[in-house]
Write a structure and sequence with these properties.
By secondary structure, the chain is α/β, with parallel strands linked by helices. It has seven helices and eleven strands. Helices cover 34% and strands 24% of the residues. Bound molecules: 1,4-dihydronicotinamide adenine dinucleotide (NAI) and ligand LZUJQKHR.
């Protein structure tokens, strides 16, 4: 049998972490070494890592803790697979440089669902021809960050190919601040938070006499697991950090 990959999970008791633990139990090539909880002393953290000896740390925690976990992984030579959203652009750039320097594999993916990756790719394709675009992302009401990491990544991919133009009426006025959503390089992102939702995104395009809607819905958290599984295996053979699962899919 090939050597098993030892996987620790930060946030193993959370909504996503519980799904990851179930997924790990179903794959004989992966072994769950335990929940890494860093809300303890330095000594406590070191003790957990010494006992678990993980090859990979899967992180589904909070926007406040993920940066520290990336630093811990660097210091320990553990390869992170990060689903947690909310890292700033500057933090992402810094980590990309530091992991490259260290020659250590790392994956940060704002969305592990293949349908969401396709939604981003199709949106970037469409934006080249239909530059009038708005993003609506819809999530459960326990989500901490807005806009979603997926919406930000989609916006980044759209902005890379979209002709820059001013959308809407030039004299448009918001009678309630925020009514037109957040501005991302000249187009808008709207965040909806409601109980009953999981993770959804609609990218709307408009042109003369026509509209185009590209929508993705994660109706449960199992939808992210094939992507997490693929990332754990891929990160073992990588040097440096990639941001976005689309880099692993041709
Ligand atoms: N990339 C992707 O495909 C997806 C990403 N996410 C992101 O994953 C993150 C987690 O989402 P959920 O599981 O819904 O949240 P959650 O709130 O259910 O789980 C977070 C868990 O992290 C734990 N935690 C907090 N601080 C910690 C620390 N210092 N050390 C260890 N554990 C700690 C909490 O106790 C909790 O169990 C969010 O940032 C969310 O946006 C969520 C779904 C899919
Ligand atoms: O918090 C969530 O639930 C999700 N977060 C990620 C994001 O911010 O895009 C991925 C997915 O949308 C679910």
């Amino acid at each position: 049998m090939t050597k098993q990959i030892r996987v620790a999970v930060a946030g193993a008791n959370g909504r996503m972490g519980q799904e990851v633990v179930k997924m790990l139990a179903q794959d004989p090539t992966l072994v769950f070494t335990g929940n890494l909880d860093t809300r303890v002393s330095e000594e406590g953290i070191n003790q957990q890592l010494d006992e678990m000896k993980p090859d990979v740390l899967v992180d589904f925690t909070t926007p406040h803790t993920v940066y520290r976990h990336m630093e811990l992984c660097l210091a320990r030579g553990v390869r992170p697979v990060v689903g947690t959203t909310g890292l700033t652009t500057e933090q992402l750039q810094e980590m990309t440089e530091r992991y490259k320097e260290a020659g250590l594999g790392a994956i940060i993916a704002p969305n592990f669902a293949i349908g969401a990756i396709l939604c981003m790719k199709f949106s970037a394709m469409a934006a080249k021809y239909m530059p009038h675009v708005e993003i609506i992302e819809l999530h459960h009401d326990r989500k901490l960050d807005a806009p979603s990491g997926t919406a930000l990544k989609t916006a980044e991919m759209i902005a890379a190919v979209r002709e820059e133009l001013k959308q809407g009426h030039p004299e448009e006025v918001e009678t309630i601040p925020g009514a037109r959503g957040a501005d991302y390089e000249g187009f808008r992102i709207h965040s909806v938070r409601l109980p009953g939702m999981v993770a959804h995104q609609e990218v709307l395009f408009g042109a003369t006499g026509q509209t185009l809607s590209i929508r993705h819905d994660s109706i449960n958290r199992e939808s992210f697991m094939p992507g997490v599984n693929m990332a754990i295996k891929a990160v073992m053979n990588m040097n440096g950090l990639i941001y976005g699962l689309e880099h692993l899919i041709d």
